[in-house]
Amino acid sequence: MAWLKAHGRHAITQKQLYDALTRGRPLPPHPVLITFDDGYRNVLENAAPVLARLHMPATAYMITERISGPDPSFLTWRMLRALERGGVEVGSHTVTHRDLTSLSDAQALAELVKSKRTLERRLGHRVPWLAYPFGGEDPRIVAFARRAGYALAVTTHSGSDHTRTTCSDSTGTQSSTRPASPASPRSCAELDENKLVLG
Ligand SMILES: [Zn+2]
Question: Has residue 183 been placed in a domain?
Fold first, then answer.
């Protein structure tokens, strides 16, 4: 994180990214979106203090059935609220962390809707951010994410010759973020040595 900061990368919030994609609002130079999947306690214990010290926003995507569950490696609701107070946003990583593309329509929609509702009810605010488990998405799942009310959804792509890259200068793609709203401009943002592709 200190390296990112020292090298002129600017951590941005989901809202900043959403406003840039949908309204053309400017982003700081070399923007990066810092995200954590699955909701392990080490996000609170290890990452959050470093991020707070460096004033870097981030997002933690939660598997809702594991919050306050029997496995102590996952965050509790109380910890989740502490995480938010410390500047880490919360997003959904579905209810059970199954690959949504392998599920029926009803199952996939339930994963998206129920996880969002649970987070919103327990945290007391809207949760419009989503990370697809295993990066699993296709046009059907993206449509369901929109229908469930998500504004932004992220997936993962590795490798150096990613063909869905929408930015002409991209040579490598670490992750791809696509707005769930249909009419959005496309833009690029650098992510470390790789590229965060928005579009
Ligand atoms: Zn995951």
Answer: no
Q: Convert the pLDDT of each residue in 64-123 to its tens digit.
A: 999 999 999 999 999 999 999 999 999 999 999 999 999 999 999 999 999 999 999 999
Residue 15 is assigned to a structural domain of this protein: yes
Q: What pLDDT is recorded for position 97?
A: 97
> Is 181 within a domain?
no
Q: How many Å lie between the centroid of ligand 1 and the Cα of residue 112? A: 14
- pTM equals 0.81
Number of structural domains, the chain?
1
Residue 157 structural domain: 2-176
Ligand 1 (single-atom ion) residues, CB below 5 Å: 37-38
The alpha carbon of 135 and the centre of ligand 1 are apart by a number of angstroms equal to 8
CA 158–ligand 1 middle distance (angstroms): 15
Q: What is the CATH number of the domain that holds 51?
A: 3.20.20.370
Expressed in angstroms and rounded, the spacing between residue 124 Cα and the centre of ligand 1 is 24
Centre of ligand 1 from the C-alpha of residue 132, in Å: 8
User: Rounded to whole angstroms, how far apart are CA atoms 54 and 192?
Assistant: 17
pLDDT in tens, 158-181: 754 433 323 222 233 334 444 544
**Residue 21 belongs to a domain:** yes
